[in-house]
Amino acid sequence: MNRPISVLLFAPLAMAAFCAQAQAVYKCQSEAGVVYSHEPCLNAAVVDTTPTQGMDKSTGQSRKGADVRRSENNKATAKAMEPLLGESAEQLEKRNRRFKLTTEARQECAKLDGVLPVQETEARSSGKPAGPNAEQRLLESRKRFRELRC
Hints:
Elements lengths: L4 H13 L7 E6 L2 E5 L7 E3 L18 H20 L3 H9 L5 H21 L8 H17 L2
Antiparallel strand pairs: 1-2, 1-3
Helix pairs in contact: 2-3, 4-5
């Protein structure tokens, strides 16, 4: 399938726009109580840290920070490119985040993409307490995912 030259020229620009990387935040139980960390821990729950989208109501002007405006611009660009590239905004952002990784690291990230949801389900299986092995495997996978910068 041939793609127009303009798409091929625009794709690197779209890739450069997705330079911000979201990090997972983990809610961990410790002796001192609940601790939030960017490092995975045993029995951790992933916390949604999606930023608020600014306040537009009081003045009618956008009061969004540069990071939120950049994120909105990236999503709009990805949505416009979706028919050409066949990728959602999330898929494009993930591909661009992994662009500089080695081939081996990309392959391991792709493997972890499939393994992590299964391990999370096993660790959080309904009705049964998770075994230490399931939690340990999940912890190891999360650490490796973070080390690789997937």
